[in-house]
Amino acid sequence: MKTISDNSDFDSQFERLLKEEPLFSLPDDFAEKVSASMGRKLIFRQLLLNYLRFAGGTTLVVIVSVLINFLISKYLPEIFHLNINLFGILPVGFGILFVLFIDRVILRYYEFKRL
Amino acid sequence: MQHSQHCMCLIVRMDDVELIRQILNGNLSAFRFLVAGNQRLVFHIVGRIVQQHDEIEDVCQEVFIKVYERLHEFRGQSKLSTWIAKIAYHQSINHLRKKKRLNEQFFEETHPGELEIPREKPADFYLEDSDVKKFLLQKIEELPVNYRTVLTLYYLDEFSYREIEDITGMPEGTVKSYLSRAKGILREKLKFVKDDIWR
C-alpha cells in the first residue's frame, strides 16, 4: 500500500487520508446499550399507559357513582339517601391513586430495570 | 399514496423495508440490528460536529432514540441511511446550540483567506503515515463546523452532493464550495509534507 511518503502522488494520498476513520470510536456494546435503553423507555411508557387507563377508568366509575347517588338522593330520596362529603373523599381518592402510581409504575419499572 | 409506495420500493432496499416493519412491530432485536448497522455513520457525523468525547456517546444515543420514535414518519423518499444522517446532523447542531458552543459565524460564508492558515509543522513530526494522518485529523477538527460536516459526509460516509443537500439543507452549490474550501485549507496545512518530500 502506498504511503504519504510515496512522493509520486501527493493528491491521491491526500484524498486517501481524508477517508481515514477518526482516532476514537463508540464502545463495542453501543448497539446493545441503546436497544436496552429503548426497551426500558418502552416498558415505562407501557406501565404509565396501563396506569392512566386504570386511573381514568376508576375516576370515571367514581364520578358516575357520585352522579347516580346525587340524582337518586335528589329525586328519589325515599329509596336511598346518603350524604357524600366530596372534600373528604377527594384527598383520599388522590392518595390512593398516588400510592397506586408508585406501586404500578415506579416500583414495577425499577423492578424491571433491576432484572 | 400509491406514488409514495412506488418511491419507497425504488429508494429503500427491501431488507430495510423489512427491518423497518419489524421495528415498528416492536422487535427490539431488529432495532439493535439497525443501530449496529448505522452507528458508524452516526458517530462520524456527531463526532465531527460535537467534538467533545464525553458527550458524543450520549448524543449518538439520543439520535437512535429519535430514529426509533420517528421511524413511522419515514416514507422512503430517501435512503434510510440518508434519513438517519439527517436526524444525526440536526440533533448534533441542536446539541451545540443548547451548549451554546455554536458560533453563528460558522454558518455564514467564510472565505479561505479569512481563515488563519499557519504553515505549521509539529516539532516531533516525522514523515510517517500515522503522523500525517494524526496531523490531518487534528486539522479537520479545527475547521468550521460546516466545512468539517461536509467533508465527513462526502469522504467518510460517501454521500453524494445531492444527499448532503438533503441531510444538511445546504444548497448543492454551497456544499461543493465548502468542500473545495475545506480541502484547500487542509492541503495548505499539509503543504510542508509535500515540500519536505519534494525538496
* Strand composition percent of chain A: under 5%
How many domains would you count in the coordinates of chain A? 1
CATH topology of the largest domain in chain B: Rna Polymerase Sigma Factor, Chain: A
Helix proportion of chain A: over 70%
Question: What's the total number of strands of chain A?
Answer: 0
Basic shape of chain A: rod-shaped
Secondary-structure arrangement, i.e. CATH architecture of the largest domain in chain B:
Orthogonal Bundle
Secondary-structure element string of chain B: HHHHHHHHHH
Q: Which of globular, elongated, flat, extended, rod-shaped describes the shape of chain B?
A: elongated
> Over the alpha carbons, how many angstroms does the gyration radius of chain B reach?
19 Å
Span between termini of chain B: 64 Å
Number of domains of chain B: 2
Major sheet of chain B, described briefly? Answer: none
Structural class of chain B: mainly alpha
Number of helices of chain A: 3
Low-confidence stretches of chain A: none
